[in-house]
Structures are given as C-alpha cells and as structure tokens.
Amino acid sequence: LYTPSAAHWFRYYAERSSAGGKRKKDPLLEDEFPNGGATAMLVHELEKRVDGSRAHACYAERKLPHYYHPAQYCGPVPVEREVAKLKKELGRARGAPEKAVLEKHIKAFQEGRILR
C-alpha cells in the first residue's frame, strides 16, 4: 500500500526516482504532463463541482454578484452615465486623434457594443 508524503500533495509533478528526484529541465518540454498530488486533488475537486456534491452550490454562486471583488461591476452597462463621462472628456480633449477615439467609444456604448 502506497502512502504518499505530505510533500506529494503539494507538487504538480511527482518526484522522480532517478537522479535523486531532480529535474534537468521543464517537464513540459519533455512532453510530461502534471502527475503529482496537487494535480490529482485539483482534478478531484473539479469532478465534485461538475456533477457531484458541489455542483448546485457552484451554480448558485455563479448567479450571485461577485461580492468578493468589490471593484468588479457585474450588472448591465450604465450606458447613459458612461456616455456622459466620455462627452465630458470629449469637451476637454485636445487634438483630433484624441477626439476621434472618444467619439468612437461613445458610438460603441450607444450601439450596445460594449459589455461587461
């Protein structure tokens, strides 16, 4: 019966028995995919979310606003407010190139092409 050490669960790549467990180069360059304990735990957790015990909780969580990212806005784009800000900037803009960019952004908001 194999009982892995705690270090096994913190590795993405399993230790090698040859060369004292040391790698000479990146395992991906040797066409070796992650095979360590951390990878196994990640796959196990993802399987539980896909169809297992956490699937419903994860689905419900995705429906909620991202409360843990207070700077992230997760609703419909406030078009009028954004257009008003851009028009104010347009009034302060100097030069045709800067004005052209702002006008392009205003048009994109008004046409509904900017989403969050």
Structure overview:
- The chain has 116 residues and is mainly α.
- The chain is built from 4 helices and no strands.
- The chain has helices spanning 37-51, 55-63, 79-92, 96-110.
- α1 (37-51) crosses α2 (55-63).
- The protein is elongated and about 70 Å long.
- It starts with 36 loop residues before the first helix and ends in a 6-residue tail after the last helix.
- The model has no long low-confidence stretch (mean pLDDT 76).
Give the class from helix and strand content and strand pairing. mainly alpha
Mean pLDDT: 76
Strand content: under 5%
Q: What form results from the Cα inertia axes?
A: elongated
Radius of gyration: 25 Å
Q: Give a quick account of the main beta sheet: strands, pairing sense, barrel closure.
A: none
Note the total helix count. Answer: 4
Q: What is the number of strand segments? A: 0
Low-confidence segments, given as residue ranges, are none
Helix content: 40-55%
End-to-end gap: 51 Å
Order of helices and strands: HHHH
